[in-house]
Amino acid sequence: MVTTLxxxxxxxxxxxxxxxxxxxxxxxxIALAGLHKAFDGNQVLRGVDLVVxxxxxxxxxxxxxxxxxxxxxxxxxxxxPDAGQILLEGTDIVPLRETALxxxxxxxxxxxxxxxxxxxxSVGENVAFALREHTTLSDAEIAAxxxxxxxxxxxxxxxxxxxADLSGGMKKRVAVARAIALPPSVLLYDEPTTGLDPxxxxxxxxxxxxxxxxxxVTSVVVTxxxxxxxxxxxxxxxxxxxxxxxxxxPDEIQRTHHSLxxxxxxxxx
Amino acid sequence: MFVDELGAMSVLAGQTFYHALTPPYNLRLLVAxxxxxxxxxxxxVSVAGLFVGLVLALxxxxxxxxxxxxxxxxVIVGLSMVRELGPVVxxxxxxxxxxxxxxAELGSMRVTEQIDAMRALxxxxxxxxxxxxxxxxxxxxxxxxxxxxxxxxxxGMAISQYEFNVDYHQYFNSLTSYxxxxxxxxxxxxxxxxxxxxxxxGCHNGLRTRGGTEGLGRTTxxxxxxxSLSVFVSDFFLTKFFWWLEGW
Lengths: 269, 248
Description:
By secondary structure, chain A is α/β, with parallel strands linked by helices. Chain A contains nine helices and ten strands. By secondary structure, chain B is an all-alpha fold.
């Protein structure tokens, strides 16, 4: 039975400048319409349509090389799509230049697959980076905010440490602390549990859930780790052959007989 | 390919000047680069300048001794060091050390997604990373050239005295009689452009690094070659330009 699963149509109507895409009638946190992206002739995305509601945690699953990370980069304008529309909290970011995008990105946070901590800066300076760049807070206020952000991700007073001295799990958590230091309304996670041991996978998964509850942020998680996806998500979307093949709640995903989802969950895809 | 690269570097240079002139200004970042670019280059530039001056005086005085004109060695060494060798030798050394350093730093930041992380945090990576490097290299290269040229001239003075019995006063007098401020400005003016070329090439190659550590090695080597060649090629045109300015 596939009845509870909600496959999206191949092309949703293009969102407008002030869209009412969510069931409640409010603007979507993220609305993607007809996104195409190719690299050197290799068509990675072939018309992605997806709506993420405010405060929702949506996980994008799919096999390796299906364009999940590309999708995240498109959402915050680190890449431009070849075609299609991206509305981030109601603003169409596709035509925007880098200067305008930088302002929009102050409201978003992204946790990169390899953590991407600045290795020339200490942990504290990494977390304080956006605060120093975008606020007029005093050193003492920044230090307090950094301590608070590290506390939120379950880390103690490690401000003086170098990123190179941290374990993989700690690096991920520092990366999350850096992303939330300037409170975001949208938080993107690119493979947050990849390369971590089971204990750290559990910790990061709990952290994503915890932040969603405490900060009320809209979260988009890209992963191929199904247990983690099912635990943190309000909805799960499957990216396959450049399109969103199916969307459903974790419960629907687990109960579905949709062959693509079953193949992915059972490791045959 | 070459035109594409040249175009991309010109765009980067344009963006760099735009962001350098647009507030906010961050002097802290400039100071941070001062140590890396200028202070740590002083020793290699000093040694190179001194020995170029020594060799130049040896070869020049040897040639002049055939005509009994060793007394003019000071002006020849001085002009060569101030107008040509000081700026070019300094630029080649700094191009190799600093330019490749920029590529390695920015390239590793690129392949480890640190540049994207910076952009994702709403920070302009050109203003934060490229502007301080380019501006500081343009400022540091003339200063380093002054050190190299001065040591070269004094090295030439010492070797002229001990090897060819050219009196210090004679050497110094021939130097000060014929070398004009325009000669010094011509040499130093070139180094500002050399600094721009070296830093933009280094930063551009770093920012376009792809293919992990192998790609990083390729672009770093490419920076040394391209920066050196750009110094030699631009030197010719800049020399012509300064001649034109001086009314030749």
